[in-house]
Amino acid sequence: MAKHVYCRHSTEMEVPFFDVDAMHIVWHGHYVKYLEVARCAFLNEISYDYNEMKRQGFSWPVVQLNLKYVKPAVFGQKVRVDLAVVEIESCLRIDYTIVDAENGKKLTKASTTQVAVSLESGEMQFQTPDSWLKAVREHHSFQAA
């Protein structure tokens, strides 16, 4: 059964020299940074970035990260990170696909899960805050379940 996708977003970037090893391929740990760049671009687009999360009284730590490397990205390559928001009510779960921006070939698949934590009490929230739900539901690509 296919997952429901609430929102989609894409971010393009070029692999910089400082992200590659001697063979000019991206070091595996830098893919996490690419996910973060795409996630931050999406959060900025919905006007609910990490500063807004803090203003609303929450932190959103990553509690799970999964990566599957399919093919390495290389120095100078233009890549696109496509993200799909697949859970919004109990957590923020995003599936990612990193592809070659020119030919669309898949390079990496990934997912992250973040949970809202009250800054006041330090307690994990079992439902996401209403402010988060409102922001994501107003995104132009939002699709109700």
TrEMBL record:
Which top-level group of life is the source organism from? Bacteria
Can the keyword Hydrolase be found in this entry's annotation?
yes
Record keywords, A-Z: Hydrolase
Supply the SUPFAM superfamilies for this chain: Thioesterase/thiol ester dehydrase-isomerase
Q: Name one Pfam family in it.
A: 4HBT_2
**InterPro entries xref list:** 4-hydroxybenzoyl-CoA_TE, HotDog_dom_sf, YbgC/YbaW
- For this protein, what is any one GO molecular function term? fatty acyl-CoA hydrolase activity
Q: Does the keyword Hydrolase apply?
A: yes
Family stated for the protein in its record? Belongs to the 4-hydroxybenzoyl-CoA thioesterase family.
Query: What name has this protein been given in UniProt?
Result: 4-hydroxybenzoyl-CoA thioesterase domain protein
Organism this protein belongs to: Neisseria wadsworthii 9715
Lineage start: Bacteria, Pseudomonadati, Pseudomonadota, Betaproteobacteria, Neisseriales
